[in-house]
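Hey, resending since the last one bounced:
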Amino acid sequence: MTAQAAGFEELRDLYQEVILDHGRKPRNHFRMEVFDASARGDNPMCGDRVELFLALEDGHISKASFLGRGCAISQASASLLTELVPGLTTGEARAMAARLREMAKTGVRDGSTPALERLSALSGVHEFPSRVKCATLAWHALDAALDGSKEASSE
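The structure tokens again:
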């Protein structure tokens, strides 16, 4: 095995570990008592469900949490979302959601910021088109919550 191939395997293992860790022990997995925006996302093809809760202050997301069930990818993605969007403006959060969707569809990782580097763990789903919807569901719910909608779809 070449050094480049070995490095790729190590990176893939690291990304898989991030997904498994967040899937097994999701962060911020609770319903906030007080929130300003929320939306529910369902993926009827595989049964993934995410309900996202956001606290907003002065155009920024101050807190995020979720409830959900489904595969490790959907739950890990929601968990990462709730860790990464607090402190961002709503515009920055939308931009992050767009970048995540692009990574999930194309597999092209974006390490331009530490947050996007963490989300690169989900870029491998591009190899499995049915899993792209799992990885992007929570991010569609984020956009829906910020738009004032109550429902999001992974379509």
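The two ends are 39 Å apart (CA to CA).

Sorry for the duplicate.
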